[in-house]
Design brief:
Family: Belongs to the peptidase T1B family.
CATH topology: Glutamine Phosphoribosylpyrophosphate, subunit 1, domain 1
Number of domains: 1
CATH architecture: 4-Layer Sandwich
Catalytic activity: Cleavage of peptide bonds with very broad specificity
Distance between the termini: 89 Å
Oligomer: single chain
Radius of gyration: 22 Å
Structural class: alpha+beta
Largest sheet: 5 strands, antiparallel
Strand content: 25-35%
Number of strands: 13
CATH class: Alpha Beta
Helix content: 25-40%
Order of helices and strands: HEEEEEEEHHEEEEHHEEH
Strand order of the largest sheet: 11-2-3-12-13
CATH superfamily: Aminohydrolase, N-terminal nucleophile (Ntn) domain
InterPro entries: Ntn_hydrolases_N, Pept_T1A_Psome_bsu_arc, Pept_T1A_subB, Proteasome_sua/b, Proteasome_suB-type
Region (Disordered): 1-48
Shape: globular
Number of helices: 6
Organism: Haloarcula salina
Length: 240
């Protein structure tokens, strides 16, 4: 007769050592390990993105190029800035999938906040939420710019992959930032209007596109005011 092997003992309560995790703690998903070859297959925005505060609100500018492994242009018309709030917009920087997932998650949380409280979230609260998601969520390496307008004024924040949130009058992120910063700081002036900031931002993006292989193919501009967010795409010649 075949011998029966004893199965797990369910007769008594589990000891503390048998629990692998706190059942009341949220579980964070893990990402699969990636090789260098896998990384080259991921669509990345490369990117130069710029945010500038103005007397009218905020101007955000991005280029339009996506690449594979930084060597092949996979798309020439990527909109790298999205509205996430009635008076705020966020850029896409890093892997396209990670950035898109980040924007969808943040937009959903903003909608939940406003549905529960019956009021718009402040830019300080929105920037803190974005930083928390960047630090704790599985969004790969992202470094977006958040620009928005609320009752406290006009705001631009850069959000680093570790969740750090830094506010400034203007900021640049992406692979072309070193070139763009030089042009931006040379032309930036206090109390610029949206129209003046558009030209400065476009010149900075074009300068980066001349040297950075991850940036180019045109520019998307988002103008944020108390009335809302307006996003349009342009050729460089239309703005300069």
């Amino acid at each position: 007769m075949r011998e029966m092997t004893p199965g797990p003992d369910f007769s008594g309560p589990k000891t503390a050592d048998e629990f692998q995790s706190d059942p009341y703690e949220p579980e964070v998903g893990s990402l699969p390990e990636q090789s260098a070859q896998d990384g080259e297959k991921v669509n990345k925005t490369g990117t130069t993105t710029i945010g500038i505060t103005t007397t009218d609100g905020v101007v955000i500018a991005t280029d339009m190029r996506a690449s594979l492994g930084g060597r092949f242009v996979s798309n020439k018309n990527v909109q790298k800035v999205e509205q996430i709030h009635p008076t705020a917009a966020l850029t896409l920087v890093g892997s396209v999938g990670g950035a898109q997932s980040f924007i969808r998650t943040l937009r959903a949380e903003v909608n939940l906040y406003e549905a529960r409280r019956g009021e718009d979230i402040t830019m300080k609260g929105l920037s803190t939420l974005a930083g928390n998601f960047a630090r704790g969520g599985p969004f790969f390496a992202i470094n977006p710019i958040l620009g928005g307008v609320d009752d406290d004024g006009h705001h631009v924040y850069s959000i680093d992959p570790a969740g750090g949130v830094m506010k400034d009058d203007y900021t640049v992120t992406g692979s072309g930032l070193t070139v763009a910063y030089g042009t931006l700081e040379d032309r930036y002036e206090d109390d610029m209007s949206n129209a003046e900031a558009r030209e400065v931002a476009a010149a900075s993006i074009k300068a980066a596109a001349e040297r950075d292989t991850g940036s180019g193919n045109g520019i998307y501009l988002a103008e944020v005011t108390a009335e809302g967010v307006d996003i349009d795409g342009y050729d460089f010649d239309e703005l300069l």
